């Protein structure tokens, strides 16, 4: 099959981007010809991958995205493929990988009526409707069951067009046999003391991931941790200035370290004592399950699509919605209680052993093959029917 993949921006540290890469690799291994359209690409290219960076113009992201849509459609007409798979919401997709939460749900619940009069709302709501609307033919790969209910509520998306995938944790995130030794090495390389209680927040998009909430929790527990020192390691590619200012204003700048985008996530998962992920929105949150399979306890917000795994595993604390800062402060304090961390760790590892948390990309590749084959057959039948008339 000839397959085209569409996404606006590729960089190595985004969860959606990493899923895109693994889908492409899986489908290439299965013998398919893969082409990628994007506006920008950071990092190493995949071998034998046809990457077409689209030159766009416009003073706003919306104008650039509209230009991208138009130029990609022109190129696809000139160089057709069997199936078009999108990783951002846009018109003209055969398949959409639903990495993001429902846009209109967020716009209605978290934004004012004035926001919904603007061009940004019109653009993104139109793109979402082009994917999920009842009149669309796009098939959707879901990553969490909670997404299904939202899209059905707002768009009446037929259930037959939505396909729920299992989680897709990379095997290199699993705790190795020599995890204690690797933990000591990782902590030494980061300059961490034995008495440091290390919180890890990982993910690009610091506002969405709730970094400000985590910094406030560190400040709330200052002077209340006994001989332990709370340290917050922040991993991800995003603007840091406002969060550095917040840490300085709260007097915890020395306890918060910004590490940027990193490739050594498995080592960081072993070095930390707790993953803290008080996100404001998160369709799934693969980092939650990466922590589970590494044996790292998790404190997360209920909005995350994968938060139910943390509750089912008893691998940490799931914060109820609406978010309350004091609840996060208490959860972090509970992680300092002797025995809690070990209990959560053992529960996490047992859950990781018992559940399929790994097969998203192989399962999704088979789904893509089946969907595209069916759509190709339907288009051929439609063409024959029109010709016979």
Low-pLDDT stretches:
none
CATH class of the largest domain, anyone?
Answer: Alpha Beta
**Beta strand %:** 15-25%
What's the Cα radius of gyration?
A: 22 Å
- For the termini, the CA-CA separation is 29 Å
Give the ordered list of helices and strands: EEHEEEHEEHHEHEHEHHEHEHEHEHEHHH
What are the key terms here?
389 residues, alpha/beta, Rossmann fold, 2 domains, 6-stranded parallel sheet, 46% helix, 16% strand
Give an account of the 3D structure.
The radius of gyration is 22 Å and the shape is globular. The protein has 389 residues and is of the alpha/beta class. The strands form three sheets. Strands 5-3-1-6-7-8-9 form a seven-stranded parallel sheet, with helices on both faces. A six-stranded parallel sheet has the order 12-11-10-13-14-15, with helices on both faces. Helix 9 links the parallel strand 11 and strand 12.
Briefly say what this structure is.
46% of the residues lie in helices and 16% in strands. It is α/β, with parallel strands linked by helices.
Topology of this protein?
Blueprint (H helix, E strand, L loop, with lengths): L1 E5 L2 E2 L4 H15 L3 E6 L1 E2 L8 E4 L7 H18 L4 E4 L8 E3 L5 H8 L8 H14 L6 E4 L2 H11 L6 E3 L14 H11 L6 E7 L3 H4 L1 H10 L8 E7 L5 H9 L6 E5 L4 H7 L2 E4 L8 H9 L3 E4 L5 H7 L2 E4 L5 H11 L4 H15 L5 H29 L1
Parallel strand pairs: 1-3, 1-6, 2-4, 3-5, 6-7, 7-8, 8-9, 10-11, 10-13, 11-12, 13-14, 14-15
Helix pairs in contact: 1-15, 6-10, 8-13, 11-14
């Amino acid at each position: 099959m000839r397959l085209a993949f569409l996404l606006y921006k590729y960089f190595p540290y985004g969860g959606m981007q990493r899923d895109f890469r693994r889908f492409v690799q899986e489908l290439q291994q299965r013998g398919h010809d893969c082409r990628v359209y994007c506006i920008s690409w950071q990092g190493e290219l995949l071998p034998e991958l046809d990457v077409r960076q689209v030159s766009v113009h416009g003073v706003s992201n919306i104008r650039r995205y509209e230009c991208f849509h138009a130029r990609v459609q022109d190129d696809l007409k000139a160089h057709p493929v069997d199936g078009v798979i999108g990783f951002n919401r846009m018109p003209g997709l055969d398949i959409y990988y639903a990495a993001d939460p429902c846009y209109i749900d967020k716009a209605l619940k978290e934004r004012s009526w004035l926001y919904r009069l603007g061009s940004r709302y019109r653009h993104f709501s139109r793109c979402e409707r082009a994917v999920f609307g009842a009149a669309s033919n796009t098939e959707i790969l879901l990553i969490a069951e909670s997404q299904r209910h939202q899209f059905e509520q707002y768009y009446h998306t037929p259930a037959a067009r939505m396909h729920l995938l299992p989680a897709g944790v990379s095997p290199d995130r699993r705790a190795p046999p020599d995890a204690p030794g690797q933990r000591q090495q990782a902590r030494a390389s980061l300059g961490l003391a034995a008495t440091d209680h290390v919180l890890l927040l990982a993910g690009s998009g610091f506002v969405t991931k709730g970094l400000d909430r985590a910094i406030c929790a560190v400040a709330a527990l200052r002077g209340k941790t006994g001989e332990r020192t709370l340290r917050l390691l922040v991993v991800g590619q995003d603007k840091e200035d406002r969060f550095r200012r917040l840490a300085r204003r709260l007097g915890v700048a020395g306890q918060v370290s910004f590490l940027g985008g990193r490739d050594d996530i498995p080592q960081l998962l072993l070095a930390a004592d707790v993953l803290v992920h008080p996100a404001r929105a998160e369709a799934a949150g693969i980092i939650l399950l990466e922590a589970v399979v590494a044996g790292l306890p998790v404190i997360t917000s209920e909005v995350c699509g994968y938060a139910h795994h943390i509750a089912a595993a008893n691998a940490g604390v799931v914060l109820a919605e609406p978010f309350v800062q004091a609840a996060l402060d208490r959860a972090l304090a509970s992680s300092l209680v002797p025995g809690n961390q070990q209990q959560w760790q053992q529960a996490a590892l047992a859950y990781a052993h018992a559940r399929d948390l790994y097969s998203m990309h192989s399962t999704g590749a088979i789904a893509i093959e089946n969907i595209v084959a069916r759509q190709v057959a339907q288009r051929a039948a439609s063409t024959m029917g029109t010709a016979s008339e």
